[in-house]
Every structure is written in C-alpha cells, then in structure tokens.
Amino acid sequence: MPTLSPSAFVVLGLLDRYGPMTPYGLDQRIQGSIGYFWGFPRSQLYSEAARLARFGLVTEVQEAEGRRRRLLSITDAGAAELARWLTQAPTEPAEIRDAGLLRLFFQGSSDQSVEQLAAEQEQAHRGRLAEYVQLVTDAGIPENSPQLLTLTMGMRYEELAIDFWAKIKDGRTQISTSATPACAPTTE
Amino acid sequence: MPTLSPSAFVVLGLLDRYGPMTPYGLDQRIQGSIGYFWGFPRSQLYSEAARLARFGLVTEVQEAEGRRRRLLSITDAGAAELARWLTQAPTEPAEIRDAGLLRLFFQGSSDQSVEQLAAEQEQAHRGRLAEYVQLVTDAGIPENSPQLLTLTMGMRYEELAIDFWAKIKDGRTQISTSATPACAPTTE
DNA sequence: AGACAACCGTACAGCTTGGACCATAGGAAT
DNA sequence: ATTCCTATGGTCCAAGCTGTACGGTTGTCT
Asked: Mean pLDDT, 10 residues at a time, over chain B (188 residues)?
C-alpha cells in the first residue's frame, strides 16, 4: 500500500468520527471546518474514496438506482491506519500558501502599490476572521475539543495577518520580529 | 491565453528582478526564499518555463551542446503580465497547509497523544524559525524590502505556532482568541 | 404541474508532484 | 593522469490533483 495523502486521512477521520457518509456528505463537513486548513475539491472526494476502497480502508456501497448514492464506511483496517497516522506521522513542514504574501514578495521596494495590496489583504483577512467567529458561535463545536483548538489557531493567524498588513498599510514597517522573541530551537 | 498560476509569476518575478537565468538557477533562488511560502518542485520549473515560452512571456535559448542550458529571459509581454498581476489580482484566500493542524483536528478529545503531537510540532516550528533567522542575518536581504517583510511575516507565524503548540503541550488550552480581539470586518 | 433549489455523481483536460535517472563541468586527491 | 566527488543542469513519467462543466434525482414551494 502506497503512502496515503493527508487528504486521505481527512476522509478516514471524518468517517471515523461521524459514521458512514456519502462523498457528498463529506464535502459538506469539509466545507466550513477542516476545509479552511486543508482544501479538498469535491471532485477529488470520489477518486479518493475509490482509492481507499481499493486498499480496503473503506467500503463503498452504491445504490443501484435513484440517486445512486455511494455510502462510505470506514473498515477496521482504515481505523487502524488512521490511528497510526494520528500518533506517529512524519511531520512534513507547514507551508503558508498565501498569494498575498507572494505578491508582496515581488513588489518593487518603492512601489506604492504595496499600500494598496496591504489594504486589500487586510480586508480579506478580516472577512476570514469573521467567518471563523461565526463558526465558533454558530456551529456546535465542543468546548476544549481539538476542533476548537484548530479553529483557534486559524483565528490567531488571521489576527496576525490583519496586524501585519495594517502596519504595512500605515507605513509602519517593523523589521524585527514581535515583542517576545521566541528563542532558538532547544538542543536535543 | 489562459490564466497563469501563481507559480508562473514566481518565474516571471525572479527573471524580472535578477535577469536571465536557467531553470536550475531559478530553483536555487526559490529554495531559501520564496520557496518557504510557495513550494515549487524543480521538475515543474522546466514545464512552467516551456509554458511561459509558448505564451511569449519568456524566451528560451538552449545551448546546442555541453550542458544544454536553457537560458530564460523575460519578454516585454511577460513583464507587462507581471506588472498587471502585481497591481490587480483576484486575491484568492490564503490557506494554511499544515499537516500538524490536520492531525490535531482529528485527535480524540481525551487522547493524551495530543501532548506528544504538540511537542513535536513545537520543535518543528522552532527549527523553521531558526532557518528564517539564519536567512535574515546571512543572506543579503535589503532593508525595508518587500522580501524582508515577507520573511518577517514568516517569522511571526512561526512564533505564533510555537506559542500555540507550547500552550497545548502544557495543558493551557486557551479558548478565546488572543488579547487584542481584532474587530469585525469594516462595513464597505 | 411547473419551477426551483438542494442533492449526488461523473468526466476530463490540464496542471502538479515526487522521484528516478542521466550527463557535463570543475576541483581535489591519489 | 586518472579517479572520485560534488555541483550543475536537464529529462522523463506515472500518479495524483484541480477546476469546471455537465447530467441526473428528490423535495418543496406556488
């Protein structure tokens, strides 16, 4: 069995937590929760499910007629694979895939279009933060759950981004890192 | 001409800033700078260059023998396209592609493996931060340049991540967002 | 009945990814 | 000189991923 992609574990994780679902149902779950942190286009869900079925990690039962739903269920092998991933994973480095930062990087030093970019980005991040706040209040996310923690990180990131772009917009470009200079890696 | 991918603009941007280069040279530039924010596998550089050449945004001149280098140069059309992207772009939302957060999301509430995960992640982010610090001191990044700003954001993100995971590790899970609750999006 | 929205699946061209492989050039060591 | 090592530079390719468009089904409202 080849190594599974992180997306595969999104499928396994959701099936494990919420029980059998159709790919469509998975899509609903993903949008508005983990989709913010790990994008997952709908079209991939079907192929991903098929792949997982091929490896025996989920079972697929398709209705013969009508909507021809594919009901997915996680198998014992799938649950085991998930558990293994949850505890011991290779920890690929994170990557901030932010087109705004990319554009900033390629701006000329004197370009005053930087300020325009900063204003745009600040707005965008404010919007995203508002979505998160909405999620926390509306959706029934259990207190002290890992889901809430994840979302908290998302909000903190948005706050950081808002502050970052706002300072650029106002011309207060800070060179040094923030107040508390988190120290170098501990020797191990 | 189809819409270009962000990666295409990485190529255009580097050629525009540093002058003609081989794909290999681009790769060197990317690793250790913008590569942290927008991953770009080497093999894609050649196809991306070919695509840009097809659209007339760069010119490719390949040596007939020896190392058969492909020297890439940005064309006027390419520079125009770049300038257009720099000023007016559609601003796709950012996405934190962090496998660590993904794993956190799928942890069970009572799992004490959360702490182990947090410890791992904290270490990883400390390492990444150290790389950034190295870059700032070593590489000749101009003061007050957009490149330095981008890197600053990277460092601030790492500090945030370190703090986030450290708190989880120590069991101090904070529900609310950080001190200054950056306000809702301004009405527009 | 008809219109409409939500539900659910399929198809596919083009792009991306990771890794393996090969070949050249320059320098260092024997 | 010959060998070896490393950096340089390119090519290939099977998989997987992405976006988008399309086509049916079911429930609901009028």
From this structure: 90 96 94 88 95 95 89 96 87 86 88 86 94 84 86 95 94 54 44
Same domain? A73 vs A113? no
Check CB contact of A134 with chain B, cutoff 8 Å. Answer: no
Q: Is A180 on the interface with B (CB under 8 A)?
A: yes
- Asked if residue A162 and residue A124 are part of one domain, the reply reads yes
In a domain, B93, yes or no: no
Residues 6 or more apart whose Cβ sits within 8 Å of residue A157: B96, B157, B160
**A97 Cβ contacts chain C strand, under 7 Å:** no
Is A131 domain-assigned?
yes
| B27 Cα to chain A: minimum distance (Å) | 16
Burial of A2 (0-12, 13-18, 19+ CB in 10 A): exposed
A79 and A129 share one domain: no
Q: Is A78 exposed, middle or buried (0-12, 13-18, 19+ CB in 10 A)?
A: buried
Q: Are residues A78 and A111 in the same domain?
A: no
pLDDT at A42 over 60: yes
- Same domain? A18 vs A46: yes
* B43 occurs within a structural domain: yes
Say whether A90 sits in a helix, a strand or coil: coil
What's the rounded mean pLDDT across residues A52-67?
A: 93
Pairing of strands B70-74, B58-62: antiparallel
Which of A:13-72 have CB within 8 Å of B?
13, 16-17, 33-34, 36-39
| B78 in the same domain as B118 | no
> Closest CA to C20 C1' — which residue?
B43
Residues A79 and A136 in one domain: no
How distant, in Å, are the alpha carbons of B145, B146, B174 from that of A123? 23, 19, 26
Please give the C-alpha separations between residue B136 and each of A106, B109, B125, B131, in angstroms, as whole numbers. Answer: 17, 39, 17, 9
Name the domain count of chain A: 2
Asked if residue A75 and residue A15 are part of one domain, the reply reads yes
**B183 is a domain residue:** no
Are B175 and A148 an interchain contact pair (Cβ–Cβ within 8 Å)? yes
Give me the domain span that covers residue A127.
Answer: 99-169
Quote the tokens at residue A146: 């890992």
What stretches of chain A show up as alpha helix (H) in DSSP? Answer: 6-18, 23-30, 42-54, 76-87, 99-105, 113-138, 146-169
